[in-house]
Amino acid sequence: MGSKRKQSGSHVDKNSLEYREKRQKNNNAVKRSRDKTKQRSQEANQRVNQLMHENEHLKSTVDSMTRELQYLKDMLICQAGSQEYLNETTETALEEILRDDAPTDLDRISSVLAEMEKMKDMRK
């Protein structure tokens, strides 16, 4: 049993108009396919570069926010150094905030700081 594909050879006239048209059509299809593959590859590379840039920006934002959070926690610790500025609610909130595994809620930290400042002002 042989191959079902026609063997190139003796009966194909490479100079015929039909053959040249088929070859041209095939060459165009191959070029389009290669161009499309190249385009997809370029788009994928651009997307990778964009995501890498975005990732770096997000890492920078996380680092900045982590430093800010640590600064606020340090301020709370300093303010709480004197128990006279804490009431029971504020002290509980402060303990929750200062746990290492606590969610980082900057609004809550700010409100505790504000409450401590109010108490400090009231006691003066």
UniProtKB/TrEMBL annotation:
Membrane spanning stretches: none
Keyword annotations of the record: DNA-binding, Nucleus, Transcription, Transcription regulation
Superkingdom of this protein's organism: Eukaryota
GO CC annotation: nucleus
GO molecular function: DNA-binding transcription factor activity, RNA polymerase II-specific; RNA polymerase II cis-regulatory region sequence-specific DNA binding
Region annotation Disordered: where it falls in the sequence: 1-55
Localization in the cell: Nucleus
Protein name: BZIP domain-containing protein
Family (UniProt): Belongs to the bZIP family. C/EBP subfamily.
Domain BZIP: 16-76
Pfam families given in the database record: bZIP_2 (PF07716)
Biased composition (Basic and acidic residues): 11-21
Annotated PANTHER family: CCAAT/ENHANCER BINDING PROTEIN (PTHR23334), CCAAT_ENHANCER-BINDING PROTEIN GAMMA (PTHR23334:SF69)
One GO BP: DNA-templated transcription
